[in-house]
Structure formats: C-alpha cells, structure tokens
Amino acid sequence: QAKNKGRNSYQIFNWTMHTEVKQRLQLENDLRRALNKDEFVLFYQPIYRLSPQQKHRLCGFEALIRWHDPELGMRSPDSFIPIAEQTGLILPMGEWVIWQACRQWQQWIQRWPQLQQGGNISVNLSPMQFVQPDLPGQIDRIVSHTGINFRQLRIEITESALMQNETAALETLKQLKAKNIQVAMDDFGTGYSSLSYLLRFPKDVLKIDKSFISTLEQSSDSQAIVKTIMALGKNMELDIVAEGIETAAQVQFLLEQGCALGQGYWFSEPLTEVQAEQILEQHFATS
Ligand code: C2E
Ligand code: MG
Ligand code: MG
Ligand code: MG
Fold first, then answer.
1. Which of 58, 139, 145, 218 has fewest C-beta within 10 Å?
2. Average pLDDT in the 258-271 region?
3. How many CA atoms lie within 13 A of 193 on its CB side?
4. Of the candidates 183, 179, 184, 168, which has an alpha carbon nearest to the alpha carbon of residue 138?
5. How far apart are CA 97 and CA 248, in angstroms?
6. How does pLDDT run across 5-24, given as a tens digit for each residue?
7. How far is the CA of 103 from the centre of ligand 4 (A)?
8. What span, in angstroms and rounded, lies between the C-alpha atoms of 250 and 271?
9. Which residue's alpha carbon is nearest to atom 42 within ligand 1?
10. pLDDT computed for residue 7 by the predictor
11. With 90 as the cut, is the pLDDT of residue 150 above it?
C-alpha cells in the first residue's frame, strides 16, 4: 500500500517537473526568437524633482523593458527576466536595453536641451549582466557611439548583483564611477544586508523600495524607515529617489522629509516612446 502510494507520488512529482522543464524550454525558445525578431520594447517612467509648490520638474526617465509577445500581448519583465537571467539571454537582451535607452535619450536631449540640466536616463542591470567582465567596455562603446554624456546615464542595480562576486562587483563599480556614470541602489531596504553593502560599494543614489512608500499611510514603521533612509542619504550625500508613489499624501510626506526625487503612478505610469514625447512637449512648453 505505502509503497504503491510512494510510487504514485513519485510519478506525479516527476511529471510536474517534466512539464515545468518543457515550459521553461518553450519560454527560452520564445525569448530567443523575440530577440531576433525585435519584439522587445522600452517603456519610460518619468522621474520628477519634487517641489513643495507642486511644480514638479521632469528630470529623467527609468527605462523598463516590455515584451510584445505576438500571442500573449504586452508582457511585464517579471514574467521573463528570471528565465533570461538563468539562460544567459539577459546578456544580449540587456545590451539591447542600454543601446536603446541611450539612443532614445540622445534624441530627447537634442529636442529638449533643458533635460541636460541634471537630467538622466536610468537603466536596470540584472546581476548576471553586472558581473560580466566586459560591462564597463560595453557601456563605454554605447555611450561613445550614441554621444550621450556619461554623467547622464544611471545604472540601477540591486544588492543581489553585488553579492555573487564582491571583488568583481567592486572593480566594475569603480570603473563605472571613474567614467562618471551614476550608480543607483534599486529596491533599497529590501535586501539581506543593505547597510553593509552601503558601506562597501560606491554609489550616488538610493531608490527607496516601493513597499515602504505604499504603506506610508498605514504604517508608522514605514514612516520611520523612510525617514531613516532619508537621513542616511543626507549624511552620506546621496540622492534619494522614492519609487512607487501613488498618492498625494505620499508626495506630501516625502516632501516633508526632504526627498528630492520621485516616480510612480501618481505622476505617471511607464510610457511608450510616443507618450513620453507628449509629456516632454507639454512639460517644457509650460515651464
Ligand atoms: P524596478 O526597477 O524596481 O522598477 C519599478 C517597477 O515598479 C516597474 O515595474 C514599474 O512599472 C513599477 N511601478 C512604477 N510606479 C509604480 C507605482 O506607483 N505603483 C506600483 N505598484 N508599481 C509601480 P516593471 O516595469 O514591471 O518592472 C519590474 C522589474 O523588472 C523592475 O523593478 C526591474 O527590476 C526589472 N526590469 C525592468 N526592466 C528591466 C530591464 O531592462 N533589465 C533588467 N535587467 N531588469 C528590468
Ligand atoms: Mg529600477
Ligand atoms: Mg525598484
Ligand atoms: Mg524591483
């Protein structure tokens, strides 16, 4: 009896694994095809310099990848970045993202030179992409070729990018910083050892994770954490970006704490290139 049961559950387990493996292989193939067929697009979420008079100043965008899947429609990065990372496809995909974002920024800078003043384009780098030895060289080639200013490129990395190989990560960061590329710690506060990483790695910007922002109104603990990150940023002379701002009350709280920069649905969702240009047009026509 028991033996039988055991065998059955073994088979079920095995079969589930089989299905999962098949799905992953399928996704991997789809991603490969998507790369060749140019099915990825970048969306751009505006980042604002917060102002107490509510005249928030548009000072850049975060580039966020989407997959225009011919069968399933627009897909969010959470549904394919993990597989891209596991299969190494993140390397060509990530390189494409940097190219695309820099080309776009260069076009926008030419049309709206006001963006030059403190503006920048932010690009997310995944852990595997970050530790590839050629990353600084790659970025160098892309920046030179597109003609954007090094200072206006901001890379966003999470703690996990630093954890795998700390020596290599430190070396990479030093090379990027030497070129004046801006480094932002993304999802700050959610990792294992955010503070110890803060101590050891050079950076310019902390992005307060949206989980702290979305709970500001209900949780005095979230308020305390945000205040503390603000103080940390101030004392370490880092810029702070609050991500995931969805309400006026959150903007108010962040302004009171001296938070300089913010992004979130309250201001704008991530936009297509055309939508972003409409926003830029409006913004600089009236300011
Ligand atoms: P992230 O870098 O922390 O990006 C912020 C995410 O929050 C984005 O999700 C954005 O659309 C979403 N968001 C923005 N404002 C709000 C808001 O007010 N409320 C809420 N609830 N969410 C908001 P998205 O675009 O789905 O991206 C998810 C993650 O995928 C990103 O998190 C980033 O880690 C990764 N990712 C996106 N694009 C790329 C890329 O080009 N390369 C790599 N390696 N990773 C990327
Ligand atoms: Mg990010
Ligand atoms: Mg984030
Ligand atoms: Mg994230």
1. 218
2. 97
3. 9
4. 179
5. 32
6. 555 555 566 667 778 888 88
7. 24
8. 22
9. 124
10. 53
11. yes
Distance CA 183, CA 15 (A): 44
210 touches ligand 1 (CB under 6 Å): yes
Q: How far is the CA of 186 from the centre of ligand 3 (A)?
A: 5
Residue listed under structure tokens 């020596």: 167
| Test site for ligand 1: of 48, 61, 89, 124, most ligand atoms within 8 A of the Cβ | 124
Token pair 């008079």 is found at 53
60 secondary structure, DSSP code = E
H or E element in which residue 13 lies: helix 2-36
User: Mean pLDDT of all residues in the chain?
Assistant: 92
- Read off the pLDDT of residues 40-87 as tens digits, 9 standing for 90 and up: 999 999 999 999 988 999 999 999 999 999 888 999 999 999 999 999
Nearest CA to ligand 1 atom 38: 64
Task: Determine the residue type at 159.
Answer: E
Closest residue by Cα to atom 41, ligand 1, is 65
The model's pTM: 0.93
Give the chain's end-to-end CA distance (angstroms, integer): 78
What DSSP string describes 196-227? HHHHHS--SEEEE-HHHHHTTTT-HHHHHHHH
Rg of the chain over Cα atoms, rounded to whole angstroms, equals 21
ipTM exceeding the 0.95 mark: yes
- The 10s digit of each residue's pLDDT in 107-133 is 999 999 999 999 999 999 999 999 999
Ligand nearest to the CA of 189: 3
C-alpha of residue 138 to centroid of ligand 1, in Å:
23
